[in-house]
Amino acid sequence: MPSPIPLSLLALWPILQSGMVVAVIRPGFFLELRLKGLFMSEHHSGASPLTGVALADCATCRHRALLATGKCVPGDICVTAQSGRQIDRFLRRNSEFAQDYLSDGFWERRAIAIRYAPLELVRALPRDSDEVVRRVVVSRLPIDELDGYVRDTDREVRMTVANRLAPEQLHTLLDDEDYLVRLQVAKRLPHGQLRRMAHDEDREVRKEVARRLPPFALGAIMRDEDAEVRRVVAQRLLPDNAAQMLTDADWVVRLEAAQRAPLDTIAGLVDDVEPDVRAAVRQRLDEFLLGDEK
What we know:
Elements: H1 9-18, H2 31-35, H3 84-93, H4 107-116, H5 119-123, H6 131-140, H7 155-164, H8 179-188, H9 203-212, H10 227-236, H11 239-242, H12 251-258, H13 275-293
């Protein structure tokens, strides 16, 4: 898995101003940053530099005829430079040449070429040894051709698969070893299958399940061991179920439950140890009494 270069916000600001960062392909992985050399693995010793301008020898370049048309510019738009930014600019303007670089020795050039090459050529490619290249392949392959990448060794590849697979096929990733992959599954899994993830070992996955389960089905996770999960549950419960959480050990859960439970069940919280809970209960009771008087 690639290890990002640690950049503080102050260090990143000049890069953002320069226009080097174009887009984020999905949450969890900055592919465009990686493709442009801002993030790289240790084994990618030839990745694009963060500073300086990479120049290639135009005299020996087979694309030198493009100089006259402005479709390549030394130090800015160049496919032979060791610069992901320049390679991307070149192939974006000259996509007809992308297929010539699908087997290039430089991982960054291959990855960018795959973005612009005809799909039929991408589909015919052998499995690449580089994880970034595989991520780009997975982002382009038809949904029904992703099965071969469901068990890929790279987490980001599997996350991309989880983000693109047809919902009815997501069950193949329910037991993935990485919680971020399972989190992607939980965000897209059909509601009828979500209960299968209600007891996932990771809190963030269970919180996503709590956000998506229909309110009538939340009873299955009302007693989750983690208060953060129960808080999400309490925010969405039906009134009768909310009453069952009025004695929860977590005061935020009690507060949420007190705002949803039937009025005849919340009187016991008027002396709750937590001021916010007491205030919420008394406000509901006062509003009821005032309305009854009117």
